[in-house]
Specification:
Order of helices and strands: HHHHHEHHHEEEEEE
Distance between the termini: 106 Å
Strand order of the largest sheet: 2-1-7-6-5-4-3
Radius of gyration: 31 Å
Largest sheet: 7 strands, mixed
Number of strands: 7
Shape: globular
Helix content: 40-55%
Oligomer: single chain
Structural class: alpha+beta
Strand content: 15-25%
């Protein structure tokens, strides 16, 4: 009788020890299975949403004037991506007037040393739209020139998507607005982006066809 009681006690004790271990193992297996299922599902979702190509058109420079950019060298898209923005602009012949203005305003180091900015860069043709007398006066007035040039600079990198309908503070302490879609964008309802999403070492550049003037 005593032996039977002893055996029953031993069996009960053994069950008491084994059951929690079994439950723990099952729980762990269940979690691992759920985790694996979740990871697999996430990967499948990513695969389904990923584009067929590694890049989409909006990841690259776009616009009619992009065709005039050199295919190689310092002035090419790959070359500009290696240099800070003022240096990169100096290697683009279509931006020579802008580069001259930046030098006159003493902003070369400011722009080159800034981090993660967006520059709306007027072409030479954009500056040519400004009456010569007015442009000469502007280039001779460092304070006014600095205000105009810094109005073309936003303190963050802007994606094409953000340009669809946006209002952004500039380094001139006043706002500019953007609108558009499908790689056709306008700044302040007047200046069109002719080559956008150009990357430099520290900035995203949108080349525009009209000089932007801050409100007086």
């Amino acid at each position: 009788m005593k032996v039977t009681h002893a055996r029953r006690a031993a069996v009960a004790l053994s069950a008491a020890v084994i059951l929690p271990l079994a439950l723990t193992a099952c729980s762990s297996d269940s979690k691992d299975s759920a985790s694996g299922s979740s990871a697999t599902s996430a990967k499948a979702s990513e695969a389904a949403s990923a584009p067929a190509d590694d890049t989409t058109p909006m990841d690259k420079p776009f616009g009619p004037a992009c065709s005039t950019v050199p295919k190689d060298g310092a002035g090419s898209f790959d070359g500009m991506a290696k240099d800070p923005v003022a240096t990169a602009a100096s290697n683009n012949p279509a931006l020579s007037t802008l580069v001259t203005a930046v030098k006159k305003a003493g902003l070369v180091d400011t722009l080159n040393n800034a981090q993660n900015i967006t520059v709306f860069a007027p072409t030479n043709d954009a500056f040519a739209k400004v009456p010569k007398a007015d442009l000469d006066k502007l280039l001779a007035d460092k304070a006014a020139l600095t205000k105009v040039l810094t109005y073309h600079v936003v303190g963050q990198r802007l994606t094409p998507k953000q340009l669809e309908k946006g209002s952004f503070d500039t380094l001139a302490k006043s706002e500019l607005t953007t609108s558009g879609s499908d790689m056709a964008y306008t700044v302040n309802d007047s200046s069109k982006v002719v080559c956008g999403n150009v990357q430099t070492a520290n900035a995203t550049v949108y080349i525009v066809d009209t000089v932007l003037m801050p409100a007086q």
